[in-house]
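#lab-general

N.A. 3:47 PM
ok so I finally got the sequence cleaned up, no stray characters, all 162 residues accounted for. can someone with queue access submit it? mine expired

B.Y. 3:52 PM
send it over

N.A. 3:53 PM
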Amino acid sequence: MKVIILNGPMGVGKTTVGKYIAEHNPGTAFIDGDWCMDIHPFVGNQETRAMAVDNILHMIENYQKCSVCNMVVLVWLMDDPKIVKQILEGITELDIEPKPYTLICEKDELISRWNSDKECEWRTDEWLNISLRSLPSFALMDNIINTDGFSIEHIAKMITDK
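B.Y. 4:20 PM
back already:
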């Protein structure tokens, strides 16, 4: 089984690329890490993040047991290196080699993508500013893919061909 992990700032295209990969590769499960801590109202603290990591790893383990599943795509904003480490170590403990990627783009590109996404309730000016401030820290992470100027199809191919 292959597990692809897409990390990066809000609005960079993790979900779009992840869904594209899942839809174009039969037997692929799609996990949005936000689903694994979907509490209303939203609470993003140490406890709920730990719960989400546990939920994600359980889901991956269950997909691993499923005979029709041969790949998992996990998308989640992981700005805490400890969370990234927990996810990677947990997947490795399942005898799966994780394939992590951090998607980034330039500031102007992020603003353009943000403004063109009319469906996401998180697309507010406040969250855009938070996402823009996070760009430099994501740019320091491992396995960077700068998505500027590339189509969704091209980015997905770059990821699945590695």
